[in-house]
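Example record

One chain of 407 residues, shown exactly as stored in the release files.
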Amino acid sequence: MSYETFIAKKVLFGKSGKSRMANPVIRIATLGITLGMAVMIVSVMVVTGFRNEITAKVIGFGAHIRINNFDSNNSYEEIPIAANAPFVTKLENNPNVKHIQIYATKAGIVKTNEEIQGIVLKGVDKKYDWTFFKDKLIAGKLPVLNDSNEFNEVLISQKTANQMQLKAGDDMIVYFIQQPPRIRKFKITGVYTTGLDEFDNLYAFCNIDIIRKLNNWDKTQAGGYEILIHDLNKLDQVNDEIYKSAGFEFYTQSIREQYPQLFHWLDLQNINVIIIIGLILLIAGISMISTLLILILENTAMIGMLKALGAGDRSIRKIFIYIAVPVIGTGIIAGNILGIGLCLLQWKFGLVTLPQESYYVSTVPVNFSLPHLILLNAGTILACILILIGPSAVISRISPSKVMRFD
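Predicted structure tokens for this chain:
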């Protein structure tokens, strides 16, 4: 054990470390780091959880990438494309592609005796991935899309069900404004809710053959393709690959391009977290600087004596940095326990609730990410140590002759 470590232990845990000023300050500094670390962990876990939850919901509705006819616009009436286009085989062999499904949409009007509401029917076939909606189903069941089925089954949102006073098992009449106008009666098999009002207020799901009949398409046509990929981080890369495979007559659009405002809003949440982390590190740094300066002032006599005995400024600075390290370590460990504990409670019991209409989720979501935890801890330790180097330079200005003469 070096003499710097020995002296640091004596200052922290020996009688000399129990001065009236130093102990309360050390406790306050430890508490400050604990609370700061906990707030940073909660902030990162909540924001990443929130981002993941919203992204998963949007992708559940629109997939990662869509392929449409190049001449299509942003309306709900697509220009048809081949449902078995040649590029599909290439996409199926792409290791980044998870699933390919066809779809078509058509706008209509739902009418009951008391209410009237616009709706968008999204037609899908039996290859459609219902994984997302299985968790969002609150009543009834998902539509059966076999070829032998009468294919008049429909899945509607809770918003539509409440506004139109409908429920699973009821019939729903939809009017389509076209030449000539058409009317279709559907059987509501299930009701879903996602919390995304932009989608819940509009979409209902049915067999794609209904859309084909309404649009006078044959069974070889569809409104477009939806592509699910394995890794969201490769979204832009896969989108480019699909665009090159599909050809110039098709238009590919990633989920970010379909809903830019929503993803820009989510990106702003990341900036908020960075600001919070920066402010907390600043406050923790000021607290540690104050603690170290008070410890130095409390032990000026010891510093003077060590200098008189031949100790260099560097060695004495090491002593006080060694004193600060246990304070930082204790605060970080306690902060991790507190922060992760709070997140576990929220994840298990959903203690903090939110208005789903405003935030798209009913409870505050959390995301446990080991890389984020490691980065937070490593960054906090590094920042605190770098901050301590400056105030420890005060030691070089302490004159042993003046201190010993004063004593």
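Notes: The mean pLDDT is 88.
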